[in-house]
């Protein structure tokens, strides 16, 4: 490489982030590593190279701790270089999503991600270096671990060693300005993330199946889903067995128009009359809306309203025919 000035070398840094050999040459020529925006440092090898050339991470390095939550060596390097693990990156989620202005997530995201990996050893190590479990959503994020044995091992560690609150609410630490589908208690998160092993373990440890967070969504309603996310029927029976209100759950199942969910709720004692009342109210409301539909939009809306009518009538017919003959101890639940 021909001789270049330090300023020229620095100007070329941003164009060389995907080629570490060229980047090293520029740094050898005196380019200032600190000209690179920390948000652009997305790989382990790049970060280690920059640290070798005096990259200053002390002030803002906390913003990328979560990006290296699976790499103890890198985390220790960052912490050894002065990164404050107690500082919080509030402008994005533990999943790396940027939040709207004014939204915030004040949880310790590096602990959230480590919990999602169910890495007990690394979790303990980060706590020993100053991370605060009580300011994390670790219990919630454990449900993201899809290895049941590891997730179930993580739960008692968080509950017994760190005395985390089994009914903690996500909204105590964050505000997204919308109803996030994983919001609520750890049990709500476990249902949303479809982690049946964690659902069952939390219930064994005393999680209240009728406890909801600030959003007001119960674990049973999470199990039935809504317009934004798919439900998780296998979680419904364990929730009802643990004492969730079957009539409250039935009302939600009727609103969702899902016969399979309604059947399960009835099998655990849901009041069929309460369900029928909701079903009739839904059909009456649909009928009124259709009757008052402006002519210029009726043609476009007709398929949707007809589909609603068919679902409502199917639910009413099912509830009217209910004889209470569902044996939830032996029957195979709908999948």
TrEMBL record:
Q: Which UniProt keywords apply?
A: ANK repeat, Repeat
Q: Name the SMART domains for this protein.
A: ANK (SM00248)
Q: Which Pfam families match?
A: Ank
* Name of the protein in its database record: Ankyrin repeat protein
The entry's cellular-component GO terms read:
cytoplasm
Q: Which domain of life is it from?
A: Eukaryota
Q: Which InterPro entries match?
A: Ankyrin_rpt, Ankyrin_rpt-contain_sf
Which regions does the record annotate with the repeat ANK? 182-214
The UniProt transmembrane annotation reads: none
């Amino acid at each position: 490489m021909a001789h270049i000035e330090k300023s020229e070398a620095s100007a070329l840094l941003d164009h060389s982030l995907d080629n570490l050999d060229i980047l090293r040459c520029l740094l050898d020529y005196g380019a200032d590593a600190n000209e690179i925006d920390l948000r652009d440092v997305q790989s382990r090898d790049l970060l280690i190279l920059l640290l070798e050339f005096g990259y200053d991470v002390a002030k803002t390095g906390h913003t990328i701790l979560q990006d290296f939550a699976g790499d103890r060596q890198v985390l220790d390097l960052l912490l050894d270089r002065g990164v404050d693990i107690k500082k919080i990156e509030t402008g994005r989620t533990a999943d790396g999503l940027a939040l709207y202005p004014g939204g915030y997530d004040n949880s310790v995201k590096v602990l959230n991600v480590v919990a999602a990996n169910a890495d007990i050893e690394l979790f303990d190590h980060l706590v020993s270096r100053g991370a605060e479990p009580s300011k994390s959503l670790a219990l919630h994020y454990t449900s993201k671990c899809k290895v049941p044995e590891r997730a179930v091992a993580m739960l008692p560690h968080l509950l017994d060693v760190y005395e985390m609150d089994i009914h903690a609410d996500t909204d105590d630490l964050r505000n997204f300005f919308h109803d996030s589908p994983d919001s609520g208690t750890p049990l709500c998160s476990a249902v949303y993330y479809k982690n049946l092993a964690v659902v069952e373990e939390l219930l064994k440890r005393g999680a209240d199946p009728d406890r909801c967070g600030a959003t007001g969504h119960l674990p049973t309603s999470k199990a039935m889903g809504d317009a934004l996310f798919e439900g998780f029927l296998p979680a419904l029976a364990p929730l009802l067995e643990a004492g969730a209100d079957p009539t409250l759950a039935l009302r939600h199942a009727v609103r969702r128009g899902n016969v399979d969910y309604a059947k399960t709720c009835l099998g655990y004692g849901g009041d069929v009359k309460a369900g029928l009342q909701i079903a009739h109210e839904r059909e009456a409301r649909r009928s009124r809306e259709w009757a008052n539909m402006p002519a210029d939009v009726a043609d476009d809306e007709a398929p949707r309203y007809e589909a609603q009518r068919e679902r409502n009538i199917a639910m009413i017919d099912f509830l009217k025919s209910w004889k209470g003959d569902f044996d939830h101890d032996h029957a195979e639940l709908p999948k």
